[in-house]
TrEMBL record, chain B:
Span of domain ABC3 transporter permease C-terminal: 304-424, 753-870
Name this protein carries in UniProt: FtsX-like permease family protein
InterPro entries cross-referenced by the UniProt entry: ABC3_permease_C, Macrolide_Exporter_MacB
Organism placement in taxonomy: Bacteria, Bacillati, Actinomycetota, Actinomycetes, Micrococcales
Region (Disordered): 1-27
Record family assignment: Belongs to the ABC-4 integral membrane protein family.
UniProt-annotated location(s): Cell membrane
Transmembrane stretches, start-end: 47-68, 296-318, 349-378, 398-416, 447-469, 475-499, 535-555, 745-774, 795-820, 840-860
Primary residence: membrane
Keywords: Cell membrane, Membrane, Transmembrane, Transmembrane helix
Membrane-topology annotation of the record: Multi-pass membrane protein
Amino acid sequence: MDTTVYVPVDGTRAVRARDLTKTYGSGEAVVHALAGVDVDFAAGEFTAIMGPSGSGKSTLMHLLAGLDTATSGQAFVGTTDVTGLNDGALTKLRRDRVGFVFQQFNLLPMFTAEQNITLPVELAGGTVDRQWFGTLVETLGLTERLTHRPAEMSGGQQQRVAIARALIAQPDVVFADEPTGNLDSRSGAEVLSFLRRSVRELGRTIIMVTHDPAAAAYADRVVLLADGRIAGDITDPTPESALAGLDALRTLEPDVSTGTTPAVPGAGA
Amino acid sequence: MATTTTAPSTDAPGSSSGGVPAAGPKGSSLPTARYTLAQMRRSAGRLTAAGIAILIGTAFVAVTLLAGNVITRATYDTIAARYADADVLVTTSGTDWRQDVEAIRGTDGVAAADAVRSAYLNLGDGSVFAYAEGIARPQDSRLMALDLTAGKWPSERGEIAVPDGLAERLHVGIGDETQVYRWVTTDPETGDGEEVTEDVRVVGITQDPYNAYASSGGAVVATPADIDEWADDPVPGGTFEIAALLEPSALSGGEPTPAVRDALDAAVVSGGKHSVKTVDEHAQQVSAERTGGEDLVFLVFVLTFAAVALLVAGLVIANTFQVLVAQRTRTLALLRCVGAGRGQLYRSVLLEAAVLGVLASLGGVLLGVLLAQTALFVAPRFDLGVPLPAAVSITPQVVLIPLAVGTVVTVVAALAPARNATRVAPLAALRPAETLSVRRGAGRVRAVLSALATIGGFALVGLGVYFGTTGEVQLGLAATVLGGAVSLVGVIVGTVFWLPKVAAFLGALVSRTGPASRLAAANTLRNPRRTSATATALLIGVTLIMTMTTGAAAARETADDTLDETFPVDIMVMPGAGEVPPSAAGTVDGVDGVTDVAEVYAADAELPGGEYLYLQGADLEDLRATVHDEHALDNLAPGTILLTQDDMENLGVAAGDTLEVTGTGSAVPLTVAETSNMGLSDVVTLTDLRKVDPEATFAAVWAALDPAADPATLLADVQDAMSDQGVFVTGPAAQRAQFEQVINVMLGIVVGLLAVAVVIAVIGVANTLSLSVIERRRESATLRAIGLSKSQLRGMLAVEGMLIAGVGAVLGIALGLLYGWTGALTALSVMGDVTLAVPWLDLGVVLVVAVVAGLIASVAPARSALQASPVEALAAE
C-alpha cells in the first residue's frame, strides 16, 4: 500500500491541502477533526475520500470547498487559497470553479430539470453554453427528462440532474458528498458510472466522499482518512482493495488512535 | 437549531411519558397538554409573530374601551366642575327656591350653599358681539369654579367679571364699559318683546382651570341680583339646583351621611318634587342624558375597525397554524404511530392556540393600557379644551373583553388547521420528508359558496346603485353596504382559486429582472394556498382603505361640481351683522387678484299668485364679467328674469312665459328665461330691477378672481379687507375648503383605524416568509452552495415579500375602486351627477406603502435565511 502523503506541486493539481487543521473546542476538550492534512488532487482525475465515521472526510471536503473555515493551514482550488477568501469571493468561487453533488440531490422542487441544471449559470448572470449543455444532457441520459420537475423523477434521475447542475459551469472541481447514499444499488451504480464518464470523457475533476468501498472502486484513486489524518492512498482501486484498505484502518485503529477520542464529534457524514 | 424536519427524540417524551394509552383516542388530556407545551416551546419563534398579530388586535380593542372610559370620565368631570367643591346637589321644582337655599344653609353639617343660576347673555359694544353664559357669584368662594386672575369679583349691580378669552374678543379690560343685550318678552301669547340694553363694567378677569364652562364659551360672573334679573324665570315645573358644601363631619368616605341626606331632603320647604344627589350621581345622570348614547355610537364605530383588525389577525393566525401543522406532519404522524388519537391531536392544536391567544391577548391589554396612558400623559400638551383624567381607569371590561375576544379569535382561527392535523396518516412518518405533499387546494363547497356570495353580493351592490340613482338613498345605501360586505366575504373565501393566477402574472413580470426574482416568483407560486391567505390578509385592509379614498375623491369632485352650480361667482360679499356698505365694491376690487366685481342690488317683489321673490339685479356687463359659469347667463337680457327649471316648476311657469312682478310701483312684465345655475335664479338686469323698485338697496358684491390665483388665499384676503364691516364674505373656495377639511378629517380617522389591519397583515407577510425560510433551510443552503450570493438571497426574499404584498395591494386597490365608485354612486347621486375619479395619488401611496412593507417584512426572514451555511445542504438527514 502506497501511503505517500505528499505529492509535489505541479500544474495538474486541481485541489491541494497544506497542513490543513480543524479543531473544535479548546483546552482539555479540544477535538481534532483534521490534524494537519497535506493532500493533492490531480486535475482530470476521479478521487474518492474514504474513511470510517468520524475520520474527518466530510470536514476535509468542506474545507477544500470553502464551505467551512479552517483552524489553520491552507486549502487551494487551483492557485486560489480558499481559506483566505471572504463570503463574496467564496460565492464567486462556488459559481465559477466549484460544483457540488449532494446526498439528498437538493434540486429545487418548483423548477424543471432544465431550469435546475442551468440555475448556477443564471445566478452568475452568465449565458448557458448550449453545446456543453447538450453534451451533458446526452451523456447523463436526461434528454427525455428536461421538462420534468423533481417530484416526477426517480432518485437516480434526480441525482443525474444534480450532476449536470454541478458540471454546467465547467468548474475546476466537483465535490460529491455520498452521492449514492440515498439511492438503491442499481441507480447508485448508474450515477457512479456517469461520474466516471464525466471525468474520462468530459475531462472534469471530481472528488467524492464515500464510506462505500464499492462506490470508491469507480474512482481512479482512493485517499484513506482516519482520525483526521491521511491514512492511505490507493491507485486504481477495486472494491476489494478499497475494502481491504478500510479494514486495515479499522484494525489499526486502536494503535493509531491511542490517547485520542475514538470518534470526532461533528465531523461525521 | 430547530429545523423543520422532525426531531423525534424531543417529541418522544411527550408521547411516551404517558400516555399513549390502551384507552386509545380517549386517553387523558394531560399528556397532550405536556406535549403541546413542549411543542410550543420548540416553535416559540414561529408563534411569536402570529401572537403579535393578535396582540395588536386586542390592544386596539383595549385602547378603544379605555378611550370610551376616558370620554365618560371627561364628560363627568366637565359636568361636575361647575359645582366646584360642592358635595351635594339639591334639586327642587318649587318656585320658592330662595327660601330653600336659606333652609339648606341652616341645615346641620352644611358649610355653604347657593343656588346654581345662569342666564344667557349677548355682550358687546355695537361692533363686536359675543354670547356667553352669565352665572351668579356664590356667597362662598368654594362654590365658584372659576379663578380670579385680575381685578375683583363683582359685588355691585352692573359689575361683571369676564373670562380672559372673552375679554380679548370684546377688546375690554378692567374698568371698561360694555353692554348686555337681552330680549325681554312683553307678551307671552305672541312672543312679542323688545331688546333691552344695559351698561355693565368689567371689574375682574377670570380663568376656567377645570374647563367647567368650556362648552358654553366661558362664563361671565355677575351679582346674584343681576343674574336674577337677566335670567328668564323657569317655566312652571322647571327645576332649580342648589349646590351645598358639607362640613367634614357630615361626610363619610366622601359621601354624605344618611342623616345629612335626610336632613337636606327635609329642609326643602317649597314643596313639589325634589331630590338630594351627590355631584357624582348628578354628573352621571346628566352625561347619560346629554350624550344620548353618543359614546355608544363612538364605541361601535371604532370597534367595527377593531373587528376588521381582529379578522385580519385571525387570518394571520389561521395561516400560521396551517403552516405549522404542515411542518409538523412527520411529528404528528409519529405521534399517531405510537398511538395518539385524532382527538388528542385536535385538542393539542386547539390548546396551543388557546395558550397563544391568552398570552398574546394579555400582552395586547398591557400594550393598550400603556398606549392609552401615554396618550393621556401627552394630551395635556395640546390644548384640547377638555379636562382629561390623569390616569386610565382599568375596569374589568377593559381587561376581560379583549382577553376573551383575542382568545376566541385565535382558537377559532386554529379550528381548520387543527382538523388538518387529525388528517395526517400515521404512514406519513415513514415517508421521506421530500415527498410529504402539502394538502391539496380548496374544495368544491368553498368554490360554490364563494361564487354565490360574490355574485349575490355584487348583484345587491348593483341594486343599491340603482336605488341610489333613483333617489332612494337610504335603501340604496343599505343594499350597497350589505352587498359590499357579502361580496367581500365571497372574494376573500375565493381568493385561493384566483389569487395565485394574479400572483403568477405579476411573478412572470418580475422574473424577467434576474435569477433571484425568478426564484422568488417560483417560490411564491409553490404554495398557492399560503400565498393566497397571506395576500388576502393585506387585501382586506387595502380594499377598505381604497374604498374610502375612492369614495372621498368622488365626494370631492361631486361637491366641486355642486358648489360651482350653487355659487355663480368666485366670491360673494353679503350682509352679515351689518349691511354691505356702498364702498364695498371698490374695496373688493382693490384686492390683488380680484379681476372683476359686480354691484348687486336687491328688492322684494310679489307675484300675482301671492308668492314673494327676492330679486337681485346688476349691470349685465358686470355680471358677464364676474359669473364663471358662462352659459348660465346666456338667456339674460333686458326684460327677462332668470329662473332655474326647479323654480319654474314651483311657480307654474315655463320659459318664454310672462311674469307680472310687482315691487313698490306697478306690475312689471318680465319674460321667463332659463338658467342652469341655482345662484342665478331670480336675477334680472339692474334696469329692470329699478323698474320694479326704484329704491332697490345695495345688497351684495360679486367678484371674479384671477384663475391662476389660489381662491382660498384670495378669499382670506377679501375677508381681511372687509373684516371691520360686519359683512359675510363667502365663496365656493371657502365652502370647498370646509368640505375638504371635513372629508380629510373623516378620511384620516378611518384610514388611521384601518391602518392597524394593514400593519397586522404586514406582520402576516413577515410571518409567512419566516415560516417559508425555516421550511426551505436546506434549499437556501443548496442555493448558496451553487453560487447564490448573500445579497441575491436577500433580494430573493425581498422580491417574495413585495410580490405577496403587491398582489394583495393590487387586488385590494381594484376592489376598493369598485366599492368606492358604487358606494359614491349610491350615496351621492342625490347631490347631482357623480364624478367617478381615480384617486391616483392615494392609489400610488397605498401601492408603494404595501410594496415597501413587503420589502421590510422580508428583512428578518432574510437574516434568518442567511444563517444557513452552505454546509447544511450537504448534511444528511
